[in-house]
Design a protein that fits this description.
heterodimer; A: mainly alpha; Four Helix Bundle (Hemerythrin (Met), subunit A); 2 domains; B: mainly alpha; Helix Hairpins; elongated
Chain lengths: 170, 92
């Protein structure tokens, strides 16, 4: 009963917050609602026994990515933005596409058949702690993707610097 | 179901908002929706792979946000607008 109650609370709050994010006029308000949304998501991950993912969610998403967004919002001027229309002219088409997607995803979810369960049971994870288990999997089975991820981060650092640099000379 | 709803809202936001920053936030929203479904699947199927994938998705999202915001700044420097309707230079 209690887990269901918790999930219901998070489901309602996350849906309402994401609607608020996409409908606010002021981008700063959107970013702030997104921050609240990320904290709710992190607590839902805690509830799903994924402490490390929750911590990463707060640190990387709420701490780094949203601060980056805020910086860019503050770099661009907002004055004219507050007067113009929020949505593009053909927004009903977008709404129809999104609703069609929701319906088809609903059919897909309702026909879902759970596969066989793996060896990482909840008891095992709680005994070994989540971070340790995740690290063991990440550094043995997924070592090569991990290295690729570091390469992606390097490329993005260089790319961001190159793109944001002012053209000098010619 | 929650994941599907959040993903749909993200798609809606991406398709309909005029401001490029909100479109970007919608992309992050979609990535987060996928993360919700991966974490819950890997919790209920008792497997670690979903969570490893979430870890990589967060990495890629950080990289994508950095690159995308750099592109937005470069665009804004040239056009002084955050409105996607006015970025129509590549129209054929």
């Amino acid at each position: 009963m209690l887990p269901k109650l918790f999930f219901g609370y998070f489901a309602v709050v996350i849906t309402v917050l994401s609607l608020l994010v996409v409908t606010r006029r002021n981008p700063v308000h959107s970013v702030m609602w997104m921050l609240l949304l990320f904290f709710n998501l992190a607590s839902m991950y805690l509830f799903l026994n994924a402490e490390f993912i929750a911590a990463i969610q707060v640190i990387v998403y709420a701490g780094a990515i949203l601060v980056l967004f805020l910086f860019v919002v503050l770099l661009l001027n907002l004055r004219e933005e507050l007067q113009t229309d929020r949505f593009v002219g053909s927004w009903p088409a977008g709404l129809v596409i999104a609703l069609a997607l929701l319906v088809s995803l609903g059919f897909a979810v309702s026909s879902f058949v759970p596969g066989m369960s793996g060896k990482y049971t909840i008891d095992y994870i709680q005994k070994e702690t989540f971070t340790k288990v995740l690290g063991q999997v990440l550094y043995t089975e997924y070592l090569f993707p991990f290295e690729i991820a570091s390469l992606i981060l390097l490329v993005s650092i260089i790319g961001a610097i190159v793109l944001a640099k002012k053209r000098t000379g010619s | 179901m929650l994941s599907a709803a959040v993903f749909t809202i993200g798609v809606f936001g991406f398709l309909t908002r005029r401001n490029i920053i909100i479109m970007f936030l919608s992309i992050e929203l979609m990535l987060n929706a996928v993360n919700i479904s991966l974490v819950s699947f890997s919790h209920f199927l008792q497997d670690m792979r979903g969570e490893v994938l979430v870890f990589f998705i967060i990495t890629v999202a950080a990289a994508e946000a950095a690159i995308g915001l750099a592109i937005i700044i470069a665009l804004f420097r040239n056009k002084t607008t955050a409105n996607v309707d006015e970025m129509n230079e590549m129209k054929g």
